[in-house]
Design brief:
This protein is of the alpha+beta class and 114 residues long. It is built from four helices and six strands; from the N terminus they run H-E-E-E-E-H-E-E-H-H. The protein is globular. Pfam families: TfoX_N.
Amino acid sequence: MAVSPQLRDFVLDQLSDLGSLETTRLFGGLSVRCDGQHFGAILRGGTFYLVADPAFRADLEALGGTIFTYARRDRVIEVPRFVSVPEEILEDVDELLPLARRAIDIARRGSSDG
């Protein structure tokens, strides 16, 4: 399912204090980049995900985030690199920006395995 222009614009507006933002196509959704660094994605019908390492993944899950999954043949594939941002956090810039900055730092280090 394609990401609506309205959702794309909303996410970019919420993140506008981070720097130069852009989106590119990714898995039928959009990659979100700050100053050229991929740190997030809008996937699966409009859910916003951040790049996470194991520690950040645990923190996001404690806030209500979930690991990105997709169905492939007869099984579900987990992609622990992407963890969703709960809607109430996406709507609160003061909560969202520190999480996004952390995702950018993780992405820059290349530490998202796990």
